[in-house]
Description:
Rossmann fold; single chain; binds magnesium ion; 5-stranded mixed beta sheet; alpha/beta; disordered C terminus; 2 domains
Amino acid sequence: MFVDEVDIHVTSGDGGRGCLSFxxxxxxxxxxxxxxxxxxxxxxxxxxxxxxxxxxxxxxxxIYKATKGSHGEGSNRxxxxxKNLTLAVPVGTVVYEEVDDGRVxxxxxxEAGQRVVVARGGDGGKGNQHFxxxxxxxxxxxxxxxxxxxxxxxxxxxxxADVGLVGFPNVGKSTLIARISAARPKIANYAFTTLSPNLGxxxxxxxxxxxxxxxPGLIEGAHEGHGLGDRFLGHLERTRVLVHLVDVSSxxxxxxxxxxxxxxxxxxxxxxxxxxxxxxxLATKHQIxxxxxxxxxDDPTRLERLRKHTAELGLTCFDVSAVTGEGVGPLLEAVWxxxxxAKSIEAEANGNAExxxxxxxxxxxxxx
Length: 368
Ligand SMILES: Nc1nc2c(ncn2[C@@H]2O[C@H](COP(=O)(O)OP(=O)(O)OP(=O)(O)O)[C@@H](O)[C@H]2O)c(=O)[nH]1
Ligand SMILES: [Mg+2]
């Protein structure tokens, strides 16, 4: 099962108490303070790994606790540290923290091996030896251990794809991804064949490649939960280009312009549910239209009208057949060009904002 959203509760371990003890032996009856420090509590760490691709493990177990640090002991023995608890999450997981007035983003694990401490173990208390001063050489106090942290987290998997395929059910999205990549999703002549997103890597000549995502089909009112709803659109948030697949054969009985308009509206209305925002993350992406099933066209005016309509909107329309492969090459070239230009625009914008971004990020990074 594909699970892309979970809530979990994490609590790191408390630090152990420092020890109050004095060294005594026959030859040194007043050997001075020798209470060891308490051990640090264990932390909870999330690490992004390519070996898991869903958050399903967190459905069965929602509460995670790391162990406490042991108390310090006499003879300067430091208490044992608590064990860190490391939880593997898929690459692309965004971590939100639930706070009083909503949710705030805590971390974005985009790269394999990237890790973040989500609850830091409490430090151990100091043993009494640290409290000795020239005037108090036999301190009768030791530090308490510091408490661990508890956080309520919302984990959300947002797939990392460069290009997204959108369209009504049955327009041929899965057929297209199967043609252009090694992905082999289920393809069938009924709506909602695809129930969770599929990723595929498209390799083009000259070492060019990009990742494409096929998400379940949308219908009118998807943002209100119709059909499978728009919950999978969140997986297209990180893409740079969207390809609209429109069925121009007469098999659906629907109008291609109408289909296209409905999907555009759903993209406009889509908002990330994980955090309250007014930003429409998909509507501003570079969009390319692919008129699919041209091998099965029986009414050419459908294609002509769609072409005219997209031209009026300033969008390019490619005629393709995902089944025969006709027109797919030029479509991919256009997708590649759009992807490159989106990347360079983004790099330029990031370059300008880099100084500010660094200044803003004052979240402490703890060594693990
Ligand atoms: N003639 C023709 N049929 C196509 C073409 N592309 C897809 N089909 C057929 O359309 C049907 C639906 O294809 P899918 O690839 O499953 O469609 P989808 O968009 O992934 O559908 P959902 O997963 O339900 O959203 C299948 O029977 C395909 O064989 C095409 O270019 N020409
Ligand atoms: Mg499909």
